[in-house]
Amino acid sequence: MADKHIPPGWDYNPATWPQRIPIIILALVGLGVATYLSLFQLHVIPTVWEPFFGNDSRKILTSSVSKVLPIPDAALGALGYLTDAVAGLIGGDNRWRTMPWIVIVFGLAVGPLGMVSILLVILQPVMFDAWCTLCLTSAAISLIMIGPAMDEMLASLQYMKRVKDANVSTWKAFWGYKSVQGKVE
Amino acid sequence: MWAQIINAILGIWLIVAPAVLGADKAAADNDHIIGPIIVSFAVISWWEATRVVRLYNLPLGAWLLLAPWILGYNETTVIISDMMVGALVIGFSFVKGKTETRYGGGWSAIWKSDSLHEREAKKQSNNL
């Protein structure tokens, strides 16, 4: 076998670096965009780049929805992207089995972040009749990350199913205790 | 995958259509809500491991066939646009495309017993 970390019944290993690095790069680009937008929302920079929709970006980024939480919504997005990038980096290329918790954190960070982005895209025209180019860019980035991140989560969840069926402690397997390593394929 | 690329483009069309065709508020809001969701499900299903997500677009396509009558659209062009997009999205959602890679039995294998990954795991441990 080419890679001894290929999950049983799979044709490839979803946790290799070539699988993970593109997602990490996307997360870092998203982090850059969201950080720039939150600097505008925090009044650190006075204007925001908007090539197509005139004053719309300002309207969106200073809207009531953007201030619902104690921190501006773009700052929350930046935290989300940071979580994605860090959770993408931690662990080796067998982490779907050695540390399922980080794979699940990664999947949970990528999934809901994408969904919140889509919700914000919907609110732009419906509530404010405006569009924000960089907000749309950020939404596109977080959407395109979802699909490629989910295969690794699938491998971890299937592993957890085998752990459960083998009556090995799912708690210990989830957190990657050394004592359960190698007990389940 | 090509079918889900087309569905993503159809979703983007929904997002811009109200501005292009001059829709009233009810029709525009509907398109602005449904469009991004269709794009999302279509894009997520570009990858084989999540190809099943394409089916989530079926109810959205069906809604687009009904929405003009339930929400009472005024412009004929918008009615035609939404219904055509709805019909096309339904059709393309059924196109699975080539899926040659094995994923241990997929998402249902998380709760179903005796699925591909479990059989393969047993085989591997017997060979040790």
TrEMBL record, chain A:
Domain of life: Bacteria
Membrane-crossing residue ranges in chain numbering: 21-45, 101-123, 130-150
Annotated Vitamin K epoxide reductase domain residues: 22-146
Keywords linked to the UniProt accession: Disulfide bond, Membrane, Oxidoreductase, Quinone, Redox-active center, Transmembrane, Transmembrane helix
Entry's family note: Belongs to the VKOR family.
UniProt keyword Transport, yes or no: no
Cellular location(s): Membrane
InterPro entries attached to this UniProt entry: VKOR, VKOR_sf
Protein name per the record: Vitamin K epoxide reductase family protein
Primary localization: membrane
Biological source species: Pontibacter silvestris
Topology with respect to the bilayer: Multi-pass membrane protein
TrEMBL record, chain B:
Membrane spanning stretches: 32-48, 55-71, 77-95
Pfam families: SPW
Segments forming domain SPW repeat-containing integral membrane: 2-93
Highest rank taxon of the organism: Bacteria
InterPro entries: SPW
Residues spanning the signal sequence: none
Keywords, sorted A to Z: Membrane, Transmembrane, Transmembrane helix
Keyword Ligase: no
Protein name: SPW repeat protein
Species, as recorded: Pontibacter silvestris
